Structures are given as structure tokens and as C-alpha cells.
Automatic annotation (TrEMBL):
Superkingdom as given in the UniProt entry: Eukaryota
Identification of the protein by name: Uncharacterized protein
Lineage per the UniProt record: Eukaryota, Metazoa, Porifera, Demospongiae, Heteroscleromorpha
Record organism: Amphimedon queenslandica
Length: 90
């Protein structure tokens, strides 16, 4: 039996009700783009990432772009992120 999985586009205020590590679709506007920063992983590998707040009419969430996606999102531009992995960081 084939399992059908449908991803709907969520509003930012509904992300709290979604489980961590789920794939989501979300639409919003990039409020700002931070400079890329280097960070060390738990295995001491040096990686770059970039933070971009994504806003819609219901709220704001933080998008973290990995090395391959740095500088792909532009401030003031609207995007629909498809199959983005939802994470939670403290």
C-alpha cells in the first residue's frame, strides 16, 4: 500500500503545533539578512550559516541557511519555502 503524504502551506503562528524535524511548506517575507557566520559543529567541523527572519501576517520565525544556500534569499522578497525542515534551537 502506498502512503500519500500531503504538505500544506502553514502560517508561522501554527509552527508551534508541528513536531520537530517535520518537513513543512511556509510562505513569508524576508525581514533582514544577517552576515554569514562560521561555527564549529559537535565534531569540530567548521561550517558557515546565515540567519534570515521570515515574516508573515501572523508572526516571525528564524530561517537558518546552510553553506550551499548562503546569500540566496534577499531582504524584502517573499518566498515559499517547500519541504523546509522544522528545527527548534534554544
Amino acid at each position: 500500500m502506498t502512503q500519500l503524504r500531503i504538505l500544506v502551506t502553514l502560517t508561522i503562528d501554527s509552527l508551534d503545533s508541528i513536531g520537530t524535524n517535520q518537513l513543512i511548506n511556509v510562505f513569508g517575507n524576508i525581514a533582514s539578512v544577517s552576515p554569514a557566520v562560521e561555527m564549529n559543529t559537535k565534531t569540530r567541523k567548521l561550517l558557515k550559516e546565515q540567519d534570515c527572519p521570515l515574516c508573515d501576517t501572523n508572526g516571525t520565525c528564524q530561517i537558518v541557511l546552510p553553506e550551499d544556500d548562503i546569500d540566496k534569499l534577499k531582504k524584502g522578497t517573499s518566498y515559499k519555502l517547500i519541504k523546509a525542515r522544522l528545527r527548534e534551537y534554544s
